[in-house]
Amino acid sequence: MNLSKDLMAASSAPLILAILADGESYGYEIVQRVAELSGGKLHWTDGMMYPLLHRLEKQGYLAAVWRVAETGRKRKYYALTDAGKGVISEQQKQWQVVNNALNNAWRSTDNMIGTGGSNDGFQPA
Amino acid sequence: MASNQHKFALPEALSAWRQALCGNPALRQDDIDELEDHLLSEMARLQQLGLAEDEAFFVAERRMGTDHQLDQQYQQVHSGRLWRNSVATEQSRASESRFTCYLAFICALLAALAIKLPAAFGITLTDENAGFYLRHASLFSFPFIAVLFIAKRQLSLRYTLLAVATVVFASLIIDVYPFADGGSTQQLTALHLPLLLWLVLGVFYCGERWRDVAGRMDFIRFSGEYLIYYVLIALGGMVLVASTMATFSMIGLDAEWLVQRWVVPCGAIGATVIAAYLVEAKQLALENIAPVLARIFTPLFALLLLSFLVTLLATGNAFDLNRELLIALDLLLVVVLGLLMYSVSARDGNQQATLFDRLQWVLVLSALLVDVLALLAISSRIAELGWTPNRIAALGENIVLLLSLGGYAWHYGQFIRGKAGFYPLEQWQTRWLPIYAVWFAIVVAVFPCLFDFV
Fold first, then answer.
1. Is the dihedral of CA B286, B287, B288, B292 positive or negative?
2. Most buried one in B103, B171, B208, B336, CB count within 10 A?
3. Rounded alpha-carbon distances, angstroms, from residue B236 to B114, B150, B152, B239
4. Which of B63, B76, B420 sits opposite A60 (nearest CB)?
5. Which residues in chain B (151-180) have CB-CB distances under 8 A to chain A?
6. Edge-to-edge strand list for the sheet holding A74-80
7. A2 by DSSP, 3-state: which?
8. What residue numbers bound the domain in which A22 lies?
9. Does the distance separating the beta carbons of A48 and B421 come in below 8 Å?
């Protein structure tokens, strides 16, 4: 599924931070993890994630180090900073508010138009 | 069956791919390495699924996104790098840069002629008219630098109107306000007008980006480098003047009138335009010098401020600062703030905190202490001796500095202790530019009315 540009811009940073909450990682692994978490439904244009990682680094949420990977190539690893850890719970609250509001809104629309479909999760149109 | 399809070679394909990315100034070698690692990882996965090497390469390359998309994304994040590389090597830029070069030359020439205009109306450049020329100097160069930027950036009509409005506003104040000649409000206005005009020039420099943190940071970098270029040109100019006088005196002629009436004033005004052009055109020449100078002077200024504080406290003179010392202190603080602003803008936001950042923090903290002292001294002077325009201006200046430096101190502290990135500091710095402008405008336009133009 291709997300709209705005939704993509809003959601990718929280997603990256949440993934890095499990421990440090690198770009390719993060993309794989996003695909895995979304059941293969979310596809990012791979190159787009790196500027975003750099922005988060600039904002002080991530710290990066270069190391040599098991492949023998040098690879840049990203890890959360304290500031990054702090911002995750805030983002979680915000997204839950949006998620709940949307679910309630769609439930009432469904009732009105009588499809009766249930929305258990966040489903962008 | 003979295969006429040429064989795929990964190293060549990779190097061509890297080559294409190298054309983008926002991408560094490190970034390309990072992308390459991604590309190769994706290829390895695809090959495990059974794709041939060339197929895997093309799929992985495509998933990476087009060069154009990548360019845009990286540029948004790393605008500071673009600044460093804005001297593009592309052919298409050549004619454009020749146009700006001629334009800069013409603007400088017009500015130089403009400064001679008052002489045609009888206000010659002599000692009794020195005040007139000092008050108007910034007005002679402002319009021409503005024109240079407006033409180069192809800005819309709104910007031109802003430039015209600024010139009209400034000349109304300088020439129509009924100032007492040589009074303190006149001096304050003359002192603050160039600073205000400079910040307004920032809007033309940044163009559409004048609200952005990145745009404003570019303007601060520009200001620092502009200053250095101007000083260099001025030094060259002094050598030129000295040689002119010397050679003419050899043949028994006095060239002083030529130098005083023409070379110095025209050169000084023309150079304000030329320096603005040079900073942009010859960026590479200075981008290595200016940050080094900032790094040399940061510890020296910190040392100066600290030793000054220690001396004051040791001799017990801390709250008994006289007028001249207060003025000197305020000037010093303004210089320190300028140095600080430039250093922040010249820094790579992605770097971890270094020793230099700690020094910078020491500089900010000591400036803050000196500012508090100055503030106490000026308040006690006002309490004892009453209000004057100079004292109120100093009070306001010290309060603005206190708040601004306080923010720098706080954000530097957070950054050095790893609690936040460098970005909040950049945001803080750029948010203050309009506040400074408003303060300057108040001193220029409102103070004279408040104090009856004395």
1. positive
2. B336
3. 22, 29, 27, 5
4. B420
5. none
6. A25-26, A74-80, A62-68
7. coil
8. 5-113
9. no
Q: Chain B residue closest to A53 (CA)? A: B77
Question: Which of B35, B76, B421 comes nearest A83 by C-beta?
Answer: B421
Instruction: List the one residue out of B435, B433, B441, B339 whose CA is nearest residue B393.
Output: B441
- Interface check for A61 against chain B (CB to CB < 8 A): the answer is yes
User: From the list A46, A59, A71, which residue is nearest B42 (CB)?
Assistant: A46
* Rounded Cα gap, residues B43 and B123, in angstroms: 77
Residues present in chain A in total: 125
CA of B421, closest CA in chain A: separation in Å?
3
Parse chain B into domains and list their residue ranges.
Answer: 10-82, 94-284, 288-421
Domain count, chain A: 1
What does the pLDDT read at residue B318?
Answer: 60
In a domain, A123, yes or no: no
ipTM of this predicted structure? 0.80
What pLDDT is stored for residue B377 in this prediction?
Answer: 87
> What tens digit of pLDDT does each residue of B93-119 get?
566 678 888 899 999 999 999 888 888
In tens, the pLDDT along B249-292 reads 888 888 888 888 888 889 999 999 999 998 877 766 666 778 88
Which pLDDT belongs to residue B95?
67
Test B37 with A28 for CB contact under 8 angstroms. yes
Both structure tokens of B227: 């200053």
CATH number at residue A89: 1.10.10.10
Top residue of B33, B75, B77, B351 to mutate, by most chain A CBs within 10 Å, is B77
B159 vs A63, A108, B94, B143, CA distance in Å?
Answer: 41, 50, 26, 12
Q: What is the pTM of this model?
A: 0.69
CB contact under 8 A, B350 and A58: yes
Tokens at B353, concatenated = 């905190």
